Every structure is written in C-alpha cells, then in structure tokens.
Amino acid sequence: MTAYEIILRKRDGDELSSDEIRFMVEGFLAGDVADYQMSAFLMAVFFVGMTDAETETLTRVMLGSGATLDLSRVEGAKVDKHSTGGVGDKLSLVIAPVAAAAGVRVPMISGRGLGHTGGTLDKLESIPGLKTDFASGDVARLVDEVGMAIVGQSPEVAPADRRMYALRDVTATIECVPLIVGSILSKKLAAGLDALVLDVKVGRGAFMGTLETARRLAQALIATADRLGLPAVALLTDMESPLGRTVGNALEVVEAIDVLSGGGPPDVRETSLAIAARMIHLAGLEPVPAAALVRAEAVLTDGSALGVFERFVAAQGGDAAAVRDPSRLPRAANTREVVSPRPGHVVAIDALEIGLASLGLGAGRTTVDDPIDPAVGLEIVAPVGAAVSAGDPLAVVHWNDPTGIAAAVDRVGAAFALGDERPEPRSRLIEVLECEHRAP
C-alpha cells in the first residue's frame, strides 16, 4: 500500500477501504505521507467525492488521531451546536446561555474567523480578559459549574483535522461535503457530546451558496453523525443578508447582550431561540420542539440566560461588568455613515460584500496569523425592508486604521440594493432536517 496507489484509486473514482483511508491520514500525521501527496488526495476527494462508508471512516480516523474530552463528571445531557459560518453570526453567544439556563450542559468547541466569516472565539475575546484556551479538565469544571463553556480546539483534539484543514485552506478544497463532515464531526465527537444541533447557512454570505448544496451537506452531517451514534438535527438558515444589525467583534457582543437582555434584532432572537429549542429537545428536557421553544423563551425573558452569560464571562476570566455595561468593551476611534443615494426601500443587503468590508477594516483575517481589531466593524441602520430617503444612513462604519476605510465604505454602499417596493418579510429559518434519536 502506497500513497501514490491510494491517490490514483480515488482519482479514478474507486471506493477506498478503511485501511487505505487510515493509511493516508495516519501516515500524513506521522510524516510518511508528504504534504503534496495529501493535497493531491484532498483534491481527488473534492472532485470525486466519498461514499457514506468512506466519510464515516474518515471521520472515525480523524477523531481517533487525538484526545477526547472527559465530561463524565458532568451530569445531564451534553449538547452543542455548530454553525457552518456566516456574516454577523453571533448566535452562539445567545444560544449557549439560553440552552444552559434551560438545563442543557453545553461544552462548545468553537473556531476563529477566516476570510469574510466571523469567529465566535474572536468575538468573545473582545471582552477584556476573557480566555478561550483551557485544558480538558477545566472545560469539564466550567460546564459543571456554569452549565456552559466556549473554548477553542486544543492541540490534542483531532490534530488530523487541524493539519488537513490547513492544506484545504490553501488548495481550494474547503467546499467539499465529505471533508467538511469529517472536519466538523471529528471535533464535535471529541467533545464527548450526547447530541448536536447544526446551523447550516445558505446564501451569499455562506460557504454553501444554494439550498441544494446546503441540504446535501446537512443530510451528510446528520447521516454520518447517526452512523457514529451521535443524534443530530440540522436547521437550514438564510445568509443572503447579514444576521442582525452588527458585523464585527465587540459590536456583535453588544448585540448578543442586547438580545439576552430582552431586546435586539428579531432575526437574531428568532434564530437563536429555534436552535436553542432543538438543543433542549435533543437533551430530553422537553418531549416536543414546541415545548422546548416555550422553555427557551421563558429563560430568555426572565433574565436567567443573561445571568448564565455573566457567570460564564467571569468563569473564563473576562470582565463580567461589561455584560451589564457594554460601554466597557472596545470601541473604534472613528465612525462614518454610508448614506442612501435615493429614496426607496432596502430590498437586499449582500452579506458577502458586508463581510469583506468588515474584513478590510481589520475585524477579520485572511491568514491564521493576522491580528484582529476587536473594535471595528459595521452597524446596519437600514435593514432589508426599511424605507429610506436620499441622504438617510444605510450603515455606520466603525474604524481605526484609515488604510481600509475608503474601500470599506465603497463595498458597504454597493452591498445595499434599493427598490421602489418594500420586499415581503421572510424568516431566517428555511428548513429543519430531523434525526431519529434523542440523547439518553
């Protein structure tokens, strides 16, 4: 068995055996399979795909490449959520405390932003002092004491995923369903979960631009999770326009706190509650999703979720006073309005262009080593459906470095489409794909 033969077989469309997939992944980690050989293998998978059995094996091997979290000390069902990435997606900051306040134990392993999509860890680290790097024993303690933890992937968890993803990122093989499935589920299974809720984004600001591709990814994730004994459910959600009213890091934290305090944009509240309700249902705390939604709404309304978030921030070393006083969070030195060129209604806001504008301001990164400015970003003043007059503000750009401000303003202005008629309102929730199991 050689890497050359395995690459050749996959290139020609053959189904690989478990031993062949294991040989490639374990050999790559050991240094016996070169980077260029793994890159060729990934490209072959990108074009040819994998069967369900191959995808399951790939996920198992990636999971087995490292350690798993020991959450045996934590009582109750452990349920996490995963988003495939979007623009303005601050949902985890709302969902985790809502689910935890309702009784779910939430060990959330999150990532950083790359490209036009934001990262949960970057948003949280805009809270002064907050840490996201914890040993597995500390994660168990946090979940046990607070009900939730949001941490980064440690070097010991699924190291095959980390190294393979680095190659996928530079070889244009990110948007490949079996590789995405292996990447997501290997990390989530390593967290010792009892169930998983998936938020699969669809549209201009998402990696999956069409409903067909998003549905295919969601189905593959659910099917593979089921084969590996992990109950899962997926929600397809709209990412044509940015989620909520803010894009950035500290700006999105402020918006999440606003939602936890009973306010905030309706689309953030609605989507957060829908996902949290599915977590509550999969945890076995409510018999049907409708009852779980009522429970989620109750802990949001009575302030319990905000209290959990405040304790979470303190437990992970952050400035808990910032939860009650968001003015303590980083603020950009400058702002600039982007105004409407004519009267009309906002009929669309291009999420990709808004994400790229935020990236250009320094709110995101193009390489894993790029620094993040936690204060900069965008605030949408006129959301889709808003009526505007000529000269009315469409958005406010928050900036520090003058280098990217002109390009960002141009992008933001181009992202807004205006029309004479008000568009019909639509929900972010497109479709739910159910699983057949529930956490014990």
Can you offer a commentary on this structure?
The protein is an alpha/beta fold. Helix content is about 45%, strand content about 15%. The chain contains 17 helices and 13 strands. The chain has helices spanning about 5-10, 20-30, 35-50, 50-65, 90-100, 120-125, 135-145, 160-170, 175-190, 210-225, 250-260, 265-280, 290-300, 305-315, 320-325, 350-360, 405-415; strands at about 80-85, 105-110, 150, 195-200, 230-240, 245-250, 335-340, 345-350, 375-380, 385-390, 395-400, 415-420, 430-435. A four-stranded mixed β-sheet has the order 1-4-5-13, with helices on both faces. Strands 6-9-11-7 form a four-stranded antiparallel β-sheet. Strand 4 (about 195-200), helix 10 (about 210-225) and strand 5 (about 230-240) form a beta-alpha-beta unit. Helix 1 runs parallel beside helix 3 (about 35-50), helix 2 packs parallel to helix 4 and helix 5 crosses helix 12. The two termini are about 40 Å apart.
Give the biggest sheet. 4 strands, mixed
**CATH-defined topology of the largest domain:** Pyrimidine Nucleoside Phosphorylase, Chain A, domain 2
User: What share of residues is helical?
Assistant: 40-55%
Helical/strand content category: alpha/beta
Strand order of the largest sheet: 1-4-5-13
Q: Considering the protein shown, what is the CATH homologous superfamily of the largest domain?
A: Nucleoside phosphorylase/phosphoribosyltransferase catalytic domain
CATH class group of the largest domain: Alpha Beta
Contiguous helical run count: 17
Q: What is the overall shape? A: globular
Calculate Rg over CA atoms.
Answer: 22 Å
N-C termini distance = 42 Å
CATH second-level architecture of the largest domain: 3-Layer(aba) Sandwich
Q: How many structural domains in the coordinates? A: 3
